[in-house]
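Course exercise 7: structure representation. Students receive a sequence record and must write out the corresponding structure in token form. The form below is the worked example handed out in class, using Osteoclast-stimulating factor 1 (350 residues). Read each field label carefully; the graders check that inputs and outputs are placed in the correct fields and that the protein name is recorded exactly as given.

STUDENT ID: A-19
EXERCISE PROTEIN: Osteoclast-stimulating factor 1
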Amino acid sequence: MIGYTKRIDFLKGIITTDRDGVRQRLTNSNIQDEDLDAILKYNRNIQEKIAENMLSMTSSMKEQALVANAIIKKDIGALESSDKLTDINAAKLKKESLKLEEHTNSKWRCWMWIMIAFVLVVFFKLHTAMSVLVKTPVPPKTTWKPGKVKVVRALCKYNAQRAEELSFDEGDLLYVYDRDTDPDWWRAKCGDQKGLIPVAYVEEQTQEIELPLHDAARRGNVSFLREYLKQGISGTGLDAAGNTPLYWAARTGHLECASELLNLPNPVINAQNKMGDTPLHVAASHGHLEMINLLLEHDADTTLKNNDGFTAEELSSDASIRNAIQLRQRRYDSTYGYGDEDYNDGDDSD
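STUDENT ANSWER:
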């Protein structure tokens, strides 16, 4: 009986415990529902505030866009007005400029013709007065200067890059006749062709021929001598000792080269070098009788003395040369009033 009662009490305790747990679970469930409602309500409030802020920002942006649009339209209108005003002013300025130019030209044209007429009258009066008063001037004394044409030999071929340039092959002779117009380009001739050649090429790819006319006369190369003269090399240029090309032709006895040089407009046959020697001096001292006769035919002066005080006749040990010079001197003196008694022929027996 006691054991049965204990069991009954035990079961009652279990039932009581189960009821308390169910009540506790129901209480906890109610608390959770209340928290969820609070969270949902809070989220809803937040969303409503965000929506209100977005609507406010949208409204503000719309107002600002309308204001900006109005400002842009106003600026565009001002620009269009400025463009129209600029066009109008430009047209007026052009019109006034044409009027001013026409007015200026008409006045200056009249003054210009008056000045031209005045200058012409003064010029003709001065010309007439000078032609009456001024005598024909005496030609200046001939001076011998080195030739201005530079002769170079091409070391390699060059093809022109432009129409005004000069093309040439390796070994061609180039005659540079203008080195002052352009510092980077020189004007030159090659055969019958003329054109520009680059200065850098001439300095690096060519070999200069020093005193080409002197060299040709000394070597007796008459073909080169003629070519040099044709290309503008001066026939009266001087070397370092003051010698002309004719001097070298006379010294070496090259008659053909001497003839070409003597046929120049101004052959400077009596040019003296730094030692005072003329072509006649050097031809006489080297015994070139035919050269002496050629020089005498072109009126070489037999009376000139060098720095040592000797004439060409006195420098020669050849009797035929001395006789030729003396004969020329007699003919000259007979023309100007000298006789044979003025000569001492005692040296002819030599």
